């Protein structure tokens, strides 16, 4: 028996999208459109009783111009399991047609899409390639889970009939990966990009530096990576490494092909022990501290009274800005417990504007909110409390806020105290807790208009290998993705739980190591 | 190949106790006495080249008077694997002879023993039954690991020849088990007593009450256990329960037979949420708080301005004192963050003396040190720092101190961040960290004379079942036991690591779920 599925459309209409219970089921022919496995939930779904579209050996994917790369990616995703050739052509049929609107549809914006599915074809429309890409992720989720197989499967390759109109609630839907505490090679970061982009996550924030490791090559400061690229919190040879600038450029390119924008972070003035081990002149006494592999925080600080500190910061900011096509450059700023408060504010007043000088928007953890320069920045709210008067004040003065409350979005928190790996300093976070909050109203005093979006950080103290990244991220990352993408009125735990339970088969089929939460009935 | 084993005797002589390398080995006959598996290390070991004692079908265990129950326990421990009858008799031979000294040997004190082993017999002498019991634990560890089997095994049941003279460094060597966060039934507590008494642990501190549960029946306050005996931090029906007064008496008796003294703890004025759920009059506003299952601390407080608080405290103290033959009654006193500081001191000044009124010695976590009444008490040092001026001042004024530094002795801390279960707020603790400190000099300003001993607390937030108790306790509990029992000069990581590695086979044979630390070469 399939359970009835309902979805709010534009927050007004409540429609039963699938009522294919045992008695109502009509043989092998699928019913009207269902979004059983679609995560995040689309903004509007209008089911149809018409016949579905069926992918066959004669199906083509049509696209021209800027739509072609997206079409090629869709074809590559659908060919292995279907075994069909699915050529990408300018025209033809029966087709999955990807087309950019000649005149922009204002409702769709840059990332929205419209999907119309009938027996004759699938028409996907968007203003921009990012919207087409989002729409293709929905198409993949509308197909049976066997579509995830890497070799030919027998299945009914139908896409149910109906119309979906969809767009994101917030422009920023991020994931963060900490490469400092355990370095993970570019191939693993790409696998993570593959997975998160399926859920319409559009920013990947890379935490590139911390006390235990410095992971990005900086010209003129070679020891940052040759000395500072050690094991992080890793043991027995795990955890070390760094990205060359070529590696970083390649990651940026790979992510952009999936409409994910890389946000680089270099954390300062705290969390700099690895840099100071490499360059002792960055300490006030000029003495190199010992390398650290423990998980403590708050003990290191750049020397805010030395000019070399600002030469260092500007070199790093200038090079990262040049390497990064995306709009944001994250300067950390958190937990600088060993920097005097006045020194901290003076430091931020001097370095935050450097980001703008090199053409980027400054971004930092919420502690930067007290610096006047933060009013032009993006502030990442991470406290496990709903009150931060400095953030509220900065938002009132013009700052944008990304919500990453630690007790809801930190993917490194354990699911419960017995799940292996992860920390629990902000509590444990089961998938229902990750889902059960509203980014627009969470931080008291921060109005919805100031909220740029949400982000799910994944700190890597316990992430010894890629499997542990997946285990911590899934299924909580899709919860955060839905909070960021889907309209508030579509947020519904019962619906999400059902869709996630159905989605699990897709992870299983492609070998994703996810946490089988007891709160979910996995199908 | 067996590795050479050396041990300091009385801190002066360094003797090779076993040099049975490949070339020196002389066939199946064992060499001189070795203490390869003896944990904690005995104070003095004098090996002999004489023939060993062999347990055979004709061996008897001889004992009279108060030595008989200890002899019966030894016989019961040796019969299953040897298959020999090992009758306990007043006289006869060849014998393992247990005898209380007619005239006390001052060096041995109450818990020391002398063990002389030759081909003709084993002579175990002590001033008191507790010393005989300690000596029988050493005898068990001198036999081959097959002795742990529960059915007949073929092995060379020899005890190597030599003389051991042994006594504890500190009079208090404790383990603590938290029954509040997860209740564990008496049968599991007894299994834990069996295991810890092998390592000459002589106190078991039971943390009977906390925010999440109240686990001891108190006459006149029935709701403490009927309402307050809930799941603790447990889920899905686990974690609930309580001890009746009869259960508690039975545990006290069972422990005493193994020379383990129960120390009951009722925690106040904080950590009392479960009591307040049951009896809202214990709050200042008279309103029942919600039951708690999370792991937070510091939010609850008895109302120090109400007389009912002191009636409650006195009822509990009077009944526990009557139920407890041991000298100590622990009143908690930790983390009372919701009690005003002056109120806290006034509360302790009033309740600590109640313990003496009912014939016991007051005992509390280190926060009590600031109350003047604590100078007559035992103070349990738990901070993960080596400085506590209030504890130093109380010790100077006469208080005794038990060392339980959280970053060394808390068995609920994870071994590393990836071991399942356990917390890590005080850091991770591998077995070498648990072993590598000295209780006599750890707390700055607390002189060695003020140190009563050591204790290894095991908080139960993650202890869903008995296997998890074992996993957290072993092999770290033996490390703490050796710090508490063996002379300072015998503390040696290399030696401990070798003996622990050999001991592991005994845990394996009796099915103890221990952590196979990568720092140990398990044989």
Walk me through what this model shows.
Chains A, B: It catalyses: Hydrolysis of terminal non-reducing N-acetyl-D-hexosamine residues in N-acetyl-beta-D-hexosaminides. Chains A, B: One of its GO terms (molecular function) is beta-N-acetylhexosaminidase activity. Chains A, B: Residues 37-166 form the Beta-hexosaminidase bacterial type N-terminal domain. Chains A, B: This is beta-N-acetylhexosaminidase. Two copies of one chain form a homodimer. Chain A is of the alpha/beta class and 523 residues long. The first copy, chain A, folds into two domains: 5-166, Chitobiase/beta-hexosaminidase domain 2-like (Chitobiase, domain 2), CATH 3.30.379.10; 172-487, Glycosidases (TIM Barrel), CATH 3.20.20. In chain A, 29% of the residues lie in helices and 18% in strands. Chain A has 14 helices and 21 strands. Chain A has helices spanning 68-82, 129-142, 186-197, 223-226, 245-257, 273-278, 307-323, 341-357, 389-396, 406-409, 431-435, 466-473, 476-485, 493-509; strands at 5-9, 13-18, 44-47, 53-54, 60-62, 88-89, 95-100, 113-118, 121-126, 158-159, 162-166, 172-178, 203-207, 209-210, 213-214, 261-265, 328-330, 361-365, 378-381, 400-403, 451-458. In chain A, the strands form five sheets. Chain A has an eight-stranded parallel sheet. In chain A, helix 1 packs parallel to helix 2 (129-142). The longest helix of chain A is centred in the middle third of the chain and has 17 residues, at 307-323. Chain A binds chain B through residues 233, 235, 294-295, 416-421, 423-425, 427, 461-462, 464, and chain B through 233, 235, 294-295, 416-421, 423-425, 427, 461-462, 464.
């Amino acid at each position: 028996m399939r359970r009835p599925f309902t979805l709010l459309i534009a927050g007004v209409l409540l429609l039963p999208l699938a009522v294919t219970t045992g008695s109502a089921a009509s043989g092998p022919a699928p019913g009207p459109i269902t979004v059983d496995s679609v995560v995040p939930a689309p903004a509007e779904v209008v089911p149809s009783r018409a016949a579905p579209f069926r992918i066959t050996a004669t199906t083509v994917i049509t696209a021209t111009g800027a739509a072609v790369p997206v079409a090629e990616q869709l074809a590559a995703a659908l060919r292995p399991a279907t075994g069909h050739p699915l050529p990408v052509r300018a025209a033809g049929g029966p087709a999955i047609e990807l087309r950019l609107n000649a005149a922009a549809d204002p409702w769709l914006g840059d990332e929205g899409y419209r999907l119309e599915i009938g027996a004759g074809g699938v028409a996907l429309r968007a203003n921009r390639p990012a919207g087409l890409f989002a729409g293709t992720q929905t198409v993949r989720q509308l197909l049976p889970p066997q579509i995830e197989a890497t070799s030919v499967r027998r299945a009914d390759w139908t896409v149910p009939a109906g119309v979906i109109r969809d767009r994101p609630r917030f422009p920023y839907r991020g994931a963060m990966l900490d490469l400092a505490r355990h370095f993970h090679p570019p191939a693993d970061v790409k696998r993570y990009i593959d997975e998160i982009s399926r859920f319409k996550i559009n920013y990947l924030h890379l935490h590139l530096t911390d006390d235990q490791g410095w992971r990005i090559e900086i010209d003129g400061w070679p020891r940052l990576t040759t000395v500072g690229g050690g094991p992080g919190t890793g043991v027995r040879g795990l955890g070390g490494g760094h990205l060359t600038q070529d590696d970083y450029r390649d990651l940026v390119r790979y992510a952009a092909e999936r409409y994910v924008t890389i946000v680089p972070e270099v954390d300062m003035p705290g969390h700099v022990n690895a840099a100071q081990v490499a360059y002792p002149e960055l300490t006030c006494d000029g003495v190199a501290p010992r390398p650290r592999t423990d998980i403590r925080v708050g003990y290191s600080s750049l020397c805010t009274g030395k000019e070399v500190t600002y030469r260092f910061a500007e070199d790093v900011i200038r090079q990262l800005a040049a390497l990064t096509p995306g709009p944001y450059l994250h300067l950390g700023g958190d937990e600088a417990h060993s920097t005097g408060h006045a020194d901290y504010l003076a430091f931020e007043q001097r370095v935050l504007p450097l980001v703008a000088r090199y053409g980027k928007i400054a971004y930092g953890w919420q502690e930067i909110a007290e610096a006047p320069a933060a009013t032009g920045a993006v502030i990442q709210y991470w406290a496990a409390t709903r009150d931060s008067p400095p953030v509220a004040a900065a938002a009132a003065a013009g700052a944008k806020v990304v919500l990453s409350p630690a007790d809801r979005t930190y993917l490194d928190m354990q699911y419960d105290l017995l799940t292996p790996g992860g920390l629990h300093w902000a509590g444990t976070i089961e998938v229902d807790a990750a889902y059960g909050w509203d980014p627009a109203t969470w931080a008291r005093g921060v109005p919805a208009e100031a909220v740029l979006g949400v982000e799910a950080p994944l700190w890597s103290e316990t992430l010894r290998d890629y499997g542990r990244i997946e285990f911590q991220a899934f299924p909580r990352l899709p919860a955060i993705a839905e909070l960021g993408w889907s309209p508030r009125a579509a947020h519904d735990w019962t619906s999400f739980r059902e869709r996630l339970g159905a989605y699990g088969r897709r992870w299983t089929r492609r070998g994703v190591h996810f946490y089988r939460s007891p709160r979910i009935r996995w199908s």
